[in-house]
Design the sequence.
């Protein structure tokens, strides 16, 4: 597998090795020992999630306030623009973001450590998005950074995404709990 650094040191793109022929392909999408040794993921994953979204749907930017989750994300059908925003108080990259295209075609994964807001925009007609989490989801602990906060200035590839009511009420970076 290939590990690619991003502008935020702790957020990395992972390109698993693909073994393919005329019949299809095989790919190891996770191996605890390899991901610990080669990627540096020390946390244990405790929950897997799967979502499906239509074109133009933006989910996020979600985070957990007191029990932050690390997430290993990938797309198994379709394509998304995936974003991680550093919201760790005192971090040298606080408020900075990383965006990457994840698709069933490129098979790339993104490791987002605890302490980041995360979201994605569906670029294909539909997309199936899977992610492993390092802590259990707790709806009472969830927060949301507004997708279009001018202080963060994410270069989303769409100006008018479809948002849930919850995501429409996201907070600006300056209003997030510290």
Sequence:
């Amino acid at each position: 597998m290939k590990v690619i650094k991003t502008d935020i040191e702790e957020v990395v793109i992972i390109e698993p090795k693909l073994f393919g022929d005329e019949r299809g392909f095989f790919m190891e999408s996770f191996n605890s020992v390899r991901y610990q040794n080669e990627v540096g993921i020390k946390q244990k994953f405790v929950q897997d999630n799967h979502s499906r979204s239509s074109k133009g749907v933006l989910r996020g930017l979600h985070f957990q306030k007191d029990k932050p989750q690390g997430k290993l994300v990938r797309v198994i059908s379709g394509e998304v623009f995936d974003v991680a925003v550093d919201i760790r108080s005192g971090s040298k990259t606080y408020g900075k973001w990383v965006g990457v295209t994840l698709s069933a075609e490129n098979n790339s994964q993104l490791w987002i450590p605890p302490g980041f807001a995360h979201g994605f925009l569906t670029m294909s007609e539909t997309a199936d998005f899977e992610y492993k989490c390092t802590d259990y989801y707790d709806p009472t602990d969830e927060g949301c950074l507004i997708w279009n906060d001018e202080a963060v200035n994410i270069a989303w590839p769409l100006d008018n995404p479809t948002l849930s009511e919850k995501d429409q009420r996201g907070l600006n970076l300056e209003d997030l709990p510290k």
User: Anything to note?
Assistant: Residues 86 and 96 are 6 Å apart (CA to CA).
